[in-house]
Amino acid sequence: MARVRPTIYVAAAQAGAEGLGLVRNVLLARALGPSEMGVAVALTMTLSLLDMISDFGPDRLLVQAEDGDREEFQSTAHSMLIIRGLFSAVLLAGLALPVGYYLNRPDAVGMMVALGVVPLVRGLLHLDSKRVQRHHDFHRTMIVELSAAITATAAAFLLAPWMRSAAVLVWVSVLQTVVLVGVSHGVAQRPYRLGMGRDVAGRLLRFGWPLAINGVIMFGAFQGDRLVVLASATAADLGRYAVAFQMTMVPALLISRIASTAWLPSLARCQGDPVTFDQRLESITKILGGVGLVFSLGILTLGNPVIKMLYGPEFPVPVAVMSALGVMQGLRILRAVPSLAALSRADSFNPLASNVLRFLGIAAAAVAGMSGGGLEAITACGCGGEVMALIGSIGLLRHRHSLSVKPLIRVSGLFAIGLLSAGVATQAVDWPLAGRLVLAVVALLTLVQMGWGLVRQRFAAMVHHEPGRCPALVKTGN
Prior knowledge:
The protein is mainly α and 478 residues long. It has helices at 4-53, 58-64, 71-103, 107-115, 117-122, 128-131, 139-163, 168-186, 198-232, 235-269, 274-311, 319-343, 349-370, 374-401, 406-427, 433-464, 471-476.
């Protein structure tokens, strides 16, 4: 049970924080409307970009380093966080005028400067809740993250209907950060101290600069589509697109994170046993492939009705856009499989390279957006980027580790067949009813095939590898 609890804490904290984020997004969107929501999204993206490119990972090195328990190590990390906060605040102030000019919103300049309070306050974060993860203590981190998420959601609920301006984002972000920092000090075991050990600072910078570069790549992979929309469409279009994108991305991202937490240790432990490794990887492939297909089919059929119900009648996007977003996030769930397999063998290049390939879709989307292609062309290019990222990740897994990728190719093929069949069945309204029913049945049978393959595999493993659990079947040979 002791091994299960850390996973439960991590999964609960991530699910709770992401779920509250969706609730907060709904509250803001319903109160602000598409245009103001677009301005709020633009401000959020700017803050997120600075946060990712300045993230040198002191919390992760604190956990991973052999001497991370040293007080000098922790005090130096605290000092580096303060420097990072000052750096981000100055950059936000410098970007205030250009962003306000681009958005044609003079009041956005003051909002951007005020957002500088967020990195300044976050620089005072107490890292003790991260340090104790070295000893498998995750509940302190859960308390810190959920407290901040609950505060931000409550602030959005109270302030958004009253202010009805993108400025509400500033207040919500500041309150969330203040609680995050305050609770991090409240749950700490050690007193908060500052220091500057030159050797530790050098190690933090050497450890952190690749993470900062990867942060830029990750920002482009996860938010590049919205940047293209911001550059080529109106604030209202950005507000609608951001709502649809977040509603589809957050569950997909959460599924991938939970899969990594649950299955990465299992794969890592059996990497020296090729047979067991292949069996576990095949099971994970079928599970995530089935989940990805169900998720995409759900977005395909229910995406806009759910948006209309949650966010209001002003926020649904074109059917083609919603369909492309569903496909995009389903592929992202499936892409977690080769990434997991590579990371279990200490290969962090695979997910990095696949995100670089995802950039090709962003580049194509930028060209399409600037050429007047609209949201439909932008999301179609995003889907193409996800396809290239999946193919590249599978190819690298085969090339670098000589693993069998047949299950991945087979499940990817079933995924494509199921989605194409369901897409035509639900969206081609001018097709005869009989033809649409046939395609719907094909999509359903594809999903059943994925599930049956997993059941058959588990059954065979139980009979042939664990005879003690099913003695009658082993005895009769059936």
